[in-house]
Design a protein that fits this description.
This protein has about 280 residues and is α+β, with helices and mostly antiparallel strands. About 20% of the residues lie in helices and about 35% in strands. The protein has a six-stranded mixed β-sheet. β8 and β9 form a beta hairpin. The longest helix has 14 residues.
Length: about 280
């Protein structure tokens, strides 16, 4: 059984369950925790409302499981990144790539396979800062309701000027999130790439540009413009400077291990949801 598999390992697996009070009351979550109790697998609950998940130490556990939607999954992934721990995202996510349903993940099978199904997910970093990864996207967006942003995009020593409400730099995994809503392409998650998608462009800019994993993108926002920089939906900084501001974006040299049943794109799941 699952418990015996754990006992045969050098250490007992300790799980960190990242979730919200609401999700922990759902039937799949209750059933899952009951299963862990039955198997005598130790775990600690890190409730998002308590903010305790942000201070959790990797010394207390060695696998993170999120139970919830994509927002919960992103918080668990940030925790996994900070502590160099693998992550399994479970839930009933309506759209996107991040969350595996309880039905599709066979925990016993995964444990017996020594977690060989972990996929490496590479986030975007800004200005080489590995402490602030974005697994879905980084967004530069205007704060003024009336004025568009004047932006310059530079990559591979080529530059393009753009007037738009903002710009999205997305990973393949984030391609079904804000990037998709803004008209960007769905990109298979096994392809490490950077996707540049404008938000409501005024100039005749193509819908998106997809760049390879070695690319570095420099975004310059011209002076005296009021805008925000968001990482995975969370505002990282507000800007309104008397001089031009430049940010460089690229994929990190490091990766996070995320447990998935398959690396095939969940196109049927995703498209069936949005085409209803």
């Amino acid at each position: 059984g699952l418990g015996d598999v754990y006992k045969r390992q050098v250490f007992m697996v300790k799980l960190a369950i990242v979730s919200s009070k609401k999700y922990l009351k759902s039937k799949p979550a209750v059933d899952f925790l009951q299963y862990l109790d039955d198997q005598k697998i130790s775990y600690v609950k890190l409730k998002l409302e308590d903010k305790s998940y942000e201070n959790a130490s990797k010394d207390t556990f060695n696998l993170i499981i999120s139970i919830g939607g994509d927002g919960t999954a992103l918080k668990a992934m940030k925790l996994g990144w900070t502590n160099s721990l693998p992550v399994l995202n479970l839930g009933s996510g309506r759209v996107g790539y991040l969350v595996n349903s309880f039905e599709t993940i066979n925990l016993q099978k995964l444990v017996k396979s020594d977690f060989i199904n972990f996929k490496k997910r590479v986030p975007i970093i800004q200005n080489n800062d590995e402490q602030e990864p974005a697994f879905n996207e980084i967004v530069l967006i205007k704060n003024s309701p009336t004025r568009m942003l004047d932006i310059q995009i530079e990559t591979y020593d080529q530059d393009v000027k753009l007037r738009a409400d903002g710009i999205i730099i997305s990973t393949s995994m984030g391609s079904t999130a804000y990037n998709y809503s803004a008209g960007g392409p769905i990109v298979q998650t096994s392809i490490d790439s950077l996707i540049i998608t404008p938000i409501s462009p005024f100039t005749k800019f193509p819908r998106s540009i997809v760049l390879d994993k070695h690319s570095e993108i420099k975004i310059t926002v011209l002076k005296n413009q009021d805008f925000s920089v968001q990482f995975d939906g969370n505002e990282l900084q507000q800007c309104n400077e008397p001089n031009d501001l430049s940010f460089t974006y690229k994929l990190s040299a490091n990766a996070l291990k995320v447990l998935e049943e398959t690396d095939k794109p969940k196109l049927d799941h995703f498209l069936n949801q949005i085409l209803r």
